[in-house]
Amino acid sequence: MKKIKILKEEKGNFYILVNKLFCQIEDKLKLYENKIDLDYIIQDYVMTISFSKKNLIIINKQEILRQIWLATTLNGYHFNYINNQWICNRTNKNFWEIFENAFLIQSKKM
């Protein structure tokens, strides 16, 4: 697994929440280090996770909206921070449920 990380140092609660989420995602990715062929890059609050079959998950912040967006080749999700968790504004599912499902699908797609 190859990792490149470039984040701006920013002040403000939203950035703290985003940094925390990105660190948690990195920790999850490390669990698959020797199991799945993947790379990721973080640059200016955009995380791109790429898999061996050219599938992608892209996670980024939308500063004006105070949201996190997650996109795959199949769908896109927008998350608001509510009651200490990132909740999808369309499905009301939390970020981790959607991320883990997207990860499973994108990592196994042909």
Automatic annotation (TrEMBL):
Gene Ontology MF terms in the entry: ferric iron binding; ferrous iron binding
UniProt GO cellular component terms: cytosol
GO biological-process terms attached to the record: iron-sulfur cluster assembly
Keyword annotations: Iron
Superkingdom per UniProt: Bacteria
InterPro entries, alphabetized: Frataxin/CyaY, Frataxin/CyaY_sf
Family indicated by similarity: Belongs to the frataxin family.
NCBIfam families from the UniProt entry: FeS_CyaY
Protein name listed in UniProt: CyaY protein
